[in-house]
Amino acid sequence: MNGVRGEATATLAGAERRLCLTLGALAEIETALAIEGAAGLAERMRTLSARDLMVVLAALLRGGGEHALAGELGQAAVDPREAAEAVAKAFVAAAG
């Protein structure tokens, strides 16, 4: 894990995974959720649906290089609480 890059790790689908809020991940999230900018993202993050959570998680996983899991989230055994915690960790790491 590279803390300087803002990477975070989380256990998802039974394995340790790397997540990162890259500019590409941010653009992917904004496009998928039809929002613009940090204010829009912050507002939307307060009321994420389960589908939105998976969209955000997939983008963060791709940002961390975890492309295989990101592409298979619909079939993966990811606990919703673990997903929410992983997303939160990634945003905290990006802010740090």
TrEMBL record:
InterPro entries: Phage_TAC_11. Pfam families: Phage_TAC_11 (PF11836). It comes from the Bacteria. This is Gene transfer agent family protein. It comes from Brevundimonas lenta.
